[in-house]
């Protein structure tokens, strides 16, 4: 029963305009700062993948699924019912689990998820695939009177830990797989490549306490889910992606997990005059991934490391391939 618990994702709190264009997917909506939502979350039909989304593949092959905050439209108030942002998720979204909105706590998202999960644990019928979004590790930079970046991150980590603990104490733990990936690396600093990011896995059949430094992509996670359910590949990218076979063990370890309490004050606010505060206040954090990340990354670095610490240089890796026959005087063979 694979899960994908997504620790970082993308949309915004939105309300449907009174005169929205006709669109069965509800792709157009009004947010606090714009009249069109994120292109890659139902906002633009040109961005729809030709083979559909993972949930479309599941629907075609009888796999049950549910979305918690992914591809949903939030209401104007935090206690409003959310609705599916795309046709394939209609009837498959948790109505009280908010999508992207950094003013709404990931701990409150955990509580909304927990209410449903407790019911599934009691009554059965948990969907085979759950896509769960915890978006607040996007942070809000050093915006005035808003949580510090490390408070946002600690809240995000705590919500994930609480979810994992609850799943591991449920009737579903013996068959569970939790895969955790970031929305994207946001071109951050990294000594190998700025596009590199972290992935986590947990479950009875996952090796514990090990680091796998193999070359994987987000498509590797997609392929893993497809392989477990016996689903066909959707594109050449997941068909050719490296699989995750190396993370698994043959015999289950059913020991449950216990979350670690936050070691940072989740109510910690940015101090007045914090580095980059004026720039952060001018950025649009109401919609995911529209801020200038190269600049935000510098602000986040100084928030975490201090104003005297210089950010490391941006690193980009790649492979240079030469096509055609070598020149006559070329020593390569």
UniProtKB/TrEMBL annotation:
Is Hydrolase given among the entry's keywords? Answer: yes
Protein name as catalogued: Phosphoesterase
InterPro entries per the UniProt record, alphabetical: Alkaline_phosphatase_core_sf (IPR017850), Phosphoesterase (IPR007312)
- Organism, by scientific name, is Eiseniibacteriota bacterium
Q: Which UniProt keywords apply?
A: Hydrolase
Pfam families to which the protein is assigned, alphabetical: Phosphoesterase
GO molecular function of the protein, one example? hydrolase activity, acting on ester bonds
């Amino acid at each position: 029963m694979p899960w994908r618990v997504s620790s970082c994702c993308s949309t915004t709190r939105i309300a449907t305009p009174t005169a929205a264009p006709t669109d069965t997917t509800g792709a157009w909506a009004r947010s606090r700062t714009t009249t069109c939502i994120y292109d890659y979350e139902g906002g633009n039909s040109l961005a729809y993948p030709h083979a559909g989304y993972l949930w479309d593949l599941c629907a075609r092959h009888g796999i049950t699924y549910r979305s918690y905050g992914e591809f949903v439209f939030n209401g104007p108030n935090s206690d409003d019912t959310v609705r599916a942002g795309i046709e394939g998720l209609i009837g498959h979204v948790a109505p009280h689990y908010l999508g992207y909105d950094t003013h709404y706590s990931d701990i409150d998202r955990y509580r909304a998820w927990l209410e449903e999960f407790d019911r599934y644990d009691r009554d059965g019928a948990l969907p085979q695939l759950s896509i769960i979004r915890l978006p607040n590790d996007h942070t809000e930079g050093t915006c005035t009177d808003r949580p510090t970046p490390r408070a946002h991150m600690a809240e995000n980590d705590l919500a994930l830990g609480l979810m994992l603990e609850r799943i591991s104490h449920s009737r579903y733990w013996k068959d569970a797989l939790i895969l955790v990936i970031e929305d994207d690396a946001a071109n951050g600093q990294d000594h190998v490549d700025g596009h590199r990011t972290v992935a986590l896995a947990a479950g009875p059949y996952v090796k514990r306490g090990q680091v796998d430094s193999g070359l994987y992509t987000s498509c590797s996670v997609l392929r893993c889910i497809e392989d477990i359910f016996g689903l066909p590949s959707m594109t050449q990218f997941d068909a050719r992606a490296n699989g995750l076979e190396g993370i698994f063990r043959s015999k289950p370890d059913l020991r449950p997990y216990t979350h670690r309490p936050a070691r940072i004050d989740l109510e910690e606010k940015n101090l007045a005059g914090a580095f980059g505060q004026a720039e952060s206040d001018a950025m649009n954090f109401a919609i995911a991934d529209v801020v200038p990340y190269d600049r935000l990354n510098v602000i986040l670095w100084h928030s975490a490391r201090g104003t005297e610490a210089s950010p490391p240089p941006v690193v980009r890796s790649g492979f240079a391939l030469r096509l055609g026959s070598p020149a006559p005087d070329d020593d390569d063979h």
